[in-house]
Amino acid sequence: MKCDFYMPVRLISGVGCIRNNAKFFSIGKKCMIVTGKNSAVASGALTDVKAVLEQSGIEYTIFDEITENPLLSACQKGGLAAAEFGAEYIIGIGGGSPLDASKAIAAFAANSTIDPMEIYDVEKLNPSLPIIAVPTTAGTGSETNPYAVLSLDGKNKKKTFTSPNSYAKYAFLDPSYTYSLGNYYTISCALDSFCHCVESLMSPKSTEISRMFALNGAAELWEELVKETQPDETAREALMYASMAGGVAINTTGTGFPHPLGYNLTMYKDIPHGRACAAFMREYLTYCRKSSFGVELSDLLAERLDCSIEDIMTLIPHLADVDVKLTDEEIELYIATTKDASNFKNCCYVINEDDMRDIYKRLFQ
Predict the structure, then answer these.
(1) CA separation, residue 65 to residues 34, 79, 115, 152, 267 (Å)
(2) What b/e string do you get for 94-116 counting C-beta neighbours within 10 Å, with b at 16 or more?
(3) What distance in Å separates the CA atoms of residue 205 and residue 90, rounded to the nearest whole number?
(4) Taking a C-beta distance cutoff of 8 angstroms, is the pair 23, 170 a contact?
(5) pLDDT tens figures, 197-249
């Protein structure tokens, strides 16, 4: 039995958890808030954070230039601005993009003289500034792990920054911040969480503890996804906590091949990340079941969800609703872009380039 586990983030949860726990924001006298243009405001999270900072006499500046698929250059710009302001910690507010960006910005702020790509030479970096994470979507689970998926400028390629110093010190899970998110993106985020849970479960790195989180998260998500209806407040609470469980699970294992194959659909076809990953669920489970380990764990998943493997293979891509057509040239470009991703080795059955080609052709030609 393997029980390895590490997750140093302190989670504080519930509606009103920020205003009820202002003391946790007193970890410095000055901070930078990292957000996108809309979600932090629309959700009410930014209002709550500003209120506790002002109540505690903490100076802050706001960096709101983070877009979907955050650019490495934008993160460096934010880090330099944080260093110039004298920020002692970073608060990330938003979905996966602002939360991921906050990790890179915290690193650049503490290493303001490095070139952008030097951020990936983690052993040479000074420790990042402390981070507080405030998710406004129930999808990435970024608040619980050290991963920051960044877009490399001009390359249509993503590269993950990860450092032991990139865990949030505190993460505030207030499900009311997800109420303003429309149904289309709520489902996309839930699909991302579901993929995290399944990909983590099927990883050879999975442990008894990570599987517990993966199975519990997948079951909560499945219960809501099968309804195919607009989630109410109770459902949104379940989705947020299930998203957290998926984030905890991949903190131990990382993700499998739906993520790198899906990145191409996001980068080149503007398919939302969660839907792009979910489009590959049938293929993922099919290949995983080529190994006895994969059969055992996928059967365990179906038992926990009280459904069949076929049910999972059918519903998740159906909800993803990805309708694109790819040329042979596009497929070859996608393979060349992602073939070296570490995620492929993170599966109980490791696919090769021919498998990647077959998958793309079956789904999108």
Answers:
(1) 8, 12, 20, 16, 19
(2) bbbbbbbbbbbbbbbbbbeebeb
(3) 31
(4) no
(5) 999 999 999 999 999 999 999 999 999 999 988 899 999 999 999 999 999 99
Give whole-number Cα distances, 197 to 64, 99, 122, 202, 322, in Å.
30, 19, 27, 9, 20
pLDDT tens figures, 310-325: 999 999 999 999 999 9
Site of tokens 């500003």:
50
Under DSSP, the state recorded for 364 is H
Q: Which residues face 12 on adjacent strands?
A: 172
Backbone Cα Rg of the chain: 20
Structure token pair of residue 114: 């490095």
CA-closest candidate to residue 189, choices 135, 120, 109: 135
- Note the pLDDT of residue 208: 96
Q: Which amino acid is at 134?
A: V
Domains of the chain: residue spans and CATH: 10-177 (3.40.50.1970), 182-364 (1.20.1090.10)
Q: How far is CA 291 from CA 196, 228, 297, 342, in A?
A: 20, 32, 10, 19
Task: Judge contact between 49 and 21, C-beta under 8 A.
Answer: no
Q: What is the pTM assigned to this prediction?
A: 0.95
Residue 128, token pair as written in the block: 């990042």
